[in-house]
Design goal:
Blueprint: E1 4-12, E2 19-27, E3 42-47, E4 57-61, E5 67-69, H1 91-94, E6 120-121, E7 144-150, H2 151-154, E8 161-167, E9 172-178
Antiparallel strand pairs: 1-2, 2-3, 4-5, 4-9, 6-7, 7-8, 8-9
The chain binds zinc ion (ZN) (2 copies).
One zinc ion (ZN) is lined by residues 136, 138-139, 141, 167, 169-170, 172.
Length: 180
């Protein structure tokens, strides 16, 4: 099965009530993921793109790799009231146009996606601000980088970058966000 990007997930965000977004849905045998030997078939990273720019959002993966909102999530005090109709869902049109390159590039190369961008899968994060790896709430260790999505590629007025991380041992993913 091919890779999928930027789709609506089934569940709603408990904080703003909007639909969660499935940032990626990629086979765990992909070269960028294979080194982790994940025991399930697809790596799916969900987040709320409305709330996710205000803090870390963790998702717990079940035995089949299906993401569920983590009980470790803590609503940021500074989360504004989110008026859902004011938030663009333009990026949903872009998802089907994204493809993962089958050819591994240098780990530092920023544009593994077929877009001229800072979006990438695997390698090292291209931080907008200081390096900031989230810690896994289960084991406390620094989480591993999966990839990043440059929101200026996804929407006309989009900005900032969503970063995706995983703790393979605890089946936990996280997203963070930075902008200049
Ligand atoms: Zn939300
Ligand atoms: Zn962990």
């Amino acid at each position: 099965m091919s890779s999928g990007f930027l789709r609506h997930a089934a569940a709603d965000c408990p904080w703003c009530g909007g639909k969660l977004t499935r940032l990626i849905d990629v086979n765990t045998s992909h070269t960028a993921l294979a080194r982790w030997n994940l025991s399930w078939e697809r790596l799916q990273v969900d987040t709320c793109v409305n709330c996710g720019c205000y803090g870390v959002i963790y998702m717990e993966l079940d035995g089949n790799g299906a993401p569920n909102w983590s009980t470790y999530n803590r609503k940021p005090d500074y989360l504004p009231d989110i008026e859902l109709e004011e938030y663009s869902r333009e990026y949903l049109q872009v998802g089907p146009q994204l493809t993962l390159s089958g050819i591994p590039r240098s780990a530092y190369y920023a544009a593994v996606w077929e877009l001229d961008s800072h979006s990438k899968f695997g390698g090292y994060p291209g931080w907008v601000q200081d390096a900031d790896y989230p810690n896994c709430p289960c084991c406390g260790r620094s989480m591993l980088f999966i990839g990043q999505l440059d929101w200026s590629d996804m929407e006309d007025y989009g900005e900032g970058i969503y970063y995706m991380f995983i703790c393979p041992m605890d089946r936990m993913t996280a997203t963070t966000y930075q902008q200049s």
